[in-house]
Structures are given as C-alpha cells and as structure tokens.
Amino acid sequence: MGNLTIGCYPGLVGSMTYDFALKLADAAATKGHKVSIWFSGNATGSVKANQKHLKDYSTGEKYLKALLEKGVEICTCEACTVARGVKKDEGIPGIQWNAMHWYLAKIYSADRVLLIGGE
Amino acid sequence: MSDIKLAFVVQRPQYKGETSRLAITHAIAYQTVEILLEDGQTVTPKLCFIGEGVLGLQKGQNAMDLYGITSTESHMKNALLVDLDVLVCKEDLAKYGIPEAAMPSAEEMGADKSIQIVPFTEIQKAVEEAKHVLFF
Fold this sequence. Notes:
The complex is a heterodimer.
Chain A: E1 3-8, H1 17-30, E2 34-39, H2 61-69, E3 73-77, H3 78-83, E4 96-98, H4 101-109, E5 112-116
Chain B: E1 2-10, H1 18-28, E2 41-49, H2 63-67, H3 72-81, E3 85-89, H4 90-95, E4 116-118, H5 120-129, E5 132-135
Parallel strand pairs in B: 1-2, 1-5, 2-3, 3-4
Helix pairs in contact in B: 1-3
C-alpha cells in the first residue's frame, strides 16, 4: 500500500475544495493507504471543535474525526491556526499542531504528494 | 544519506492569495525538518516562480511599514539567507516588463545565494529532477 501526503490550504467555507480533500483522504484510507493531511492557510480554521453542521455549509469536524478514527494523521499549522484566533485547547482532539517542517517530513516518506491549493 | 528533491512552483502572485506566499515559508522550513527525520535524511526544495508568480517579487516593498506584515521581498531574502535555490522565469519577467535588476538581493545581509533568473527550460529541469512537485 502507498503513502499519501495531502497539503490542504482552502478554507472550510467558500468552495468545495476542502470537502474534496477530505473525501479523497477518506477514499485512500479506506483502500488501505497510509494518509497524512497537512492544513495550512485558511484550512486551519477547520480544526476548531464544536462546529455546528448547517446544511448550507461544509463542515470539517464530523469528517475529521472519522478520518482520525481511520488512522489518518492530521496536523494543522500552528502559526496559521492561532493567527485565525483558534487556541490549541479549542481544537478537535487528535489533530496535531506543528510547524511547516511537519509537512516536509511527511513529504520525505510519501510515495505521492498532493497539494490542494487555496485562496 | 538520502535526500529528497522537491520543486515548489509558484504560479500565482503573493498579493492575491495566501497560498502562494506560503510556498516561500514552507520551502524555508526545509532548514528545520531534520528534527523530524532520521540522521542523514534531508529535503531540498527549489523555489521556482513562473507565470503570474513572478509578479510582486520586486525589491523596495513596504509591507511592514504600511500593513505591519512581512513583505514578499523579505520572505525572498530569508529564503536566500538559508541557502535556498530561488529560480525566477526569465521569459515571464520579460513578458510582464519587469527588469531583472528589480529582483531583490540578500547580499547585504550576508547571503551566499542570489535569485537565479533562468530560462523556463531550467525550471523544467528542476521539476524533472524533483521527486515531488508542489504547485502553489
């Protein structure tokens, strides 16, 4: 099985790009691939816990928790996250907080890297 | 010893979105990645600017004075200071009428490297040599 690293940069709300990244990660993990996701830029706003899932808006929390349960490693850029006013103790449990070198370290051992760009 | 070569290809201007700016800071992070890797494992990015990505690289930026944030110019200088290879597409600079002399330098800060203004074929070569290509 392969090792996939996804860099995810788009915001949770505003396009379906973020949703696509999570669906892709889920599909890869379900097939047995090792998957890691790096959140940077506006995607980091999605790691805040207690999101209300309104039908008109995408949600991150429900799907992120499901991915964590499947063994997907998820890490958010700490600088990008705190810049958006999200504190570590407000984050979804299980999501790692680290610096950009986390992404590069995952890339090091990845068979494939996808960078899903944002705004 | 095992090195993974990466090509960070920036094709959008930094002033129009955050992601293209993040290309520079992510590339700079190669300097500290070793704390998460085994001995002898390294990551070597090349930062390549093409298309509209060459816009907004010029020296003389005042983002810190006007907006209180680090300018792209400053990020570029930091990239040079940590010995990153920074390639800017010669044809695209010419296409937008940007003189090569307008590219910033970090020489006064003690950087050994300079921005390399190269034909697209050189950037293509960097892409071909990389294990992973990241488009910003």
